[in-house]
Write the structure tokens for this entry.
Amino acid sequence: MKTNKLPHKSKPGFKVPEDYFEALEQNLMDSLFSDSKEAFVLNEKISSGFKTPQRYFENFNVELPEKEATGVISLIDRRTLYYVAGIAAVLISLFYGLFNENSAKASWDNLELSAIENYIEEGYMDMPESEITNYLYEDGYVIEDADFRKVNSRAVVDYLDEHVEDPTYIFDY
Amino acid sequence: MDTSENELVERLKHKATAQDAFRELVSIHKERLYWHIRNMVKNHDDTDDILQNTFIKIFKNIRNFKGESRLFSWMYRIATNEAITFINKKARKLQITSEDLQERLISNLQSDVYFDGNDIELKLQRAIASLPAKQQQVFNMKYFEELKYREMAEILETSEGALKASYHIAAKKIEEFLKTN
């Protein structure tokens, strides 16, 4: 019976230059790794060029802070909280002063958190920490240190997860 | 976590043995962590500051180390985070992007007394700086620090396959940079 299959031919009349396949691999390697006569190839190890001061590692010593660490897990940098709360208070006052005539009430709800974060991030905050704490008010009450201990850890983590864009500030212990 | 590492962690957690254990920890890991940070921030003095902070952070937080990963990986993660935070802060302070900061760090190498690289080594540093941050990190860890993919995967919390691909792409880009620049 006659079939429609083409007869199989391993060499259908085409030719390749002499030693083509032998040279192919070498050509590829040369073009990828050693085009340049210089040692600009990663298969030849290039050092970083960095060095350290003499006897640096022998003399390396870590100065631990006087106060030893306690067992309390710090989930959030309190200073950041101070900054955010302080700036928020200042901005609320500012908004209130500017838009009072339009009776626009400033509150946490209509204050852009990203604006506060940006303000701090950009380094506009030029105020010692001790002074910032003077501005820490919430609903007319001064926020005590003890209040921070009441913060629900899970809520803080959820908040950070949702709002902090740069994960490098959150350690994954 | 192996027995000796486990024992060291336990000693670090107890007040009576913490100081000696910490000295031992610093002695074992200072060089590897130093080079890991140095490859990221390039400058010796900055590296020294970050290394100090890294060890202090390790000591302060050792109680939170749960042994879910190896101590070595956990410390590397802290060092990496410290170095990234430092770079971001520095860029912000200078009001430039991280990419511009990289270029500036490389330019400073020529006058750095703790860099004695020749033209090729300087060119390699330029090539590395031209890569995206993640690829830079993977390349440095594999090429200079000679970490295993398994170790890198644990530190960077990425799959070995993704790291291999990332290193391959980074190496190709660097080769191209070295040939064309």
About this structure: The radius of gyration of chain B is 17 Å. The CA atoms of residues 127 and 174 of chain B lie 5 Å apart. Chain B has nine helices and no strands.
